[in-house]
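Retro notes - structure team

What went well: the batch runner handled both jobs without manual restarts.
What didn't: labels got mixed up in the shared folder, which is why I'm recording both outputs here explicitly, each with its sequence directly above its tokens.

Job 1
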Amino acid sequence: MKKLFFLLVSTFLCSANLFAQGLSLYCEDDTPLQFVGADGKLTGFTIEIVHEIQKRLGNTDEIHMVPWARGLGFLNAGSNSMLFTMARTSERDQLYQWIGPISETTYGFYVKADSIVKVTSLEDAKRVGLIGVYRDDVRDQFLTKQGFTNLDRANSNLSSFKKLMLGRNVMYADSLMGVKSLAENAGYKLADVRVAYNFMKIQLYIAASKDTDPAIVAQWNRALDDMKKESVFLKIHKKYFPDLAPPGPAITKF
């Protein structure tokens, strides 16, 4: 009986210790995943997912919005740090711990609706004019690795989209979910652009730094799994992506 008592106490203290560990939570400005609403507060698909996980685990750590490159720096340098929303790729797979997947998306090259540009391969895309990308994110990293030398790197997706519409760039790399929101925020319509070529499908996650306590990551994943079983996750997903299917099982082999 004493052994059982001490085991229960030990388990409680361990759980309490996990809750007590402060987390450094970072996100980028990327509508509709995370953005500042009209009331000045952070909102968006991933923000709602994270807030629900926090509520279930009793975590009240603040989420900080930072440029993506800075967020990556914090994630690489600090323990008990998380950054979202991040695409899981072969290059990143062993660098971080993963909570998810929370979504799936396809990245493509977008052009103005009346553009005569035709792209049927990555090699074609290397020969057009400037292509707008978000500095240091998965699009920039993937295309750079593929040998692209015509990338115009910007510190925000909105800046890249505006450059496309102003004719300063020939194409812009993004997903359908991202372009739709950007078009509206920039005063355009989704019909003002078209996808010229889809080049990559990926799953999106909440990324935790490599040295974050694995027990914390496991807690977050269990909370997310419970949300999916209870359809709470599906409700949030449909709110933001009514035309997209929820993510399938985690892809862990690249």
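Job 2
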Amino acid sequence: MVSSRARKVTTQTLQKMKQSGEKIAMLTAYDYSLARLVDGAGIDVILVGDSASNVMAGNETTVPITLDHMIYHAQCVINGVDRALVVVDMPFGSYQGDSKTALDSAIRIMKESGGHAVKLEGGVEVCESVKRIVEAGIPVMGHLGLTPQSIYKFGTYSVRAKEEAEATRLIEDAKALEEAGCFSVVFEKIPSELAKQASESLTIPTIGIGAGSDCDGQVLVLHDMLGITKDFSPRFLRRYADLGSIIEAAVSQYVEDVRSVDFPNDEERY
């Protein structure tokens, strides 16, 4: 466990890690209890992801989750964190309309949740919003490649930027986000060689998910890597535990013990 006195991770910490070649570890979290465990284990960045729509609410996509939902989850996470940088996803509909809407949404997230930064999806088309948010003093993380909020546009979760034109556009978008003031950018499900090229062309840290090992850091959805979710198995996912099976077995044993009057026993009574 990491001491609560450990130095707080900031956007500058991540920049220094890129410069020194030290990899950045990032995971999602959506509640106090797991955020506290993840933070205590030494994670650098916690993403309060709009993937909460999937793993917490059971929705098919990230689209339904609202700004109020994201603020609630971020509040819970912040309460459990001492060290990690907490980045909060801006949900679908909270920034796509115009830069004023984007700024208003980002301000709500920061004021009401206590988060440290926000993340939004898109390239050149969101740069005006990025600039406005950054100018207001709010750090912004970008997100390129597979952008789950645009699933109905793409119609698939397959690898992005395999063709030359889209790969070129991704590099241009990444540089535009850096110029607009993003402190970091996530690359999701793009060819590893493209991620390497993009990472080397940027001065800001890159975080990969399904983008190979040459990014400056990696991110996974916590419930996926812990084996709590079982029906999602992309190539990039490594399961570090099988908590789903452990939880099922524990609950089944509890049910059995209650019904057999084995629980509570004499030592568990007052």
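One thing worth noting from job 2: The first strand starts at residue 24 and ends at 28.
We'll revisit the folder naming next retro.
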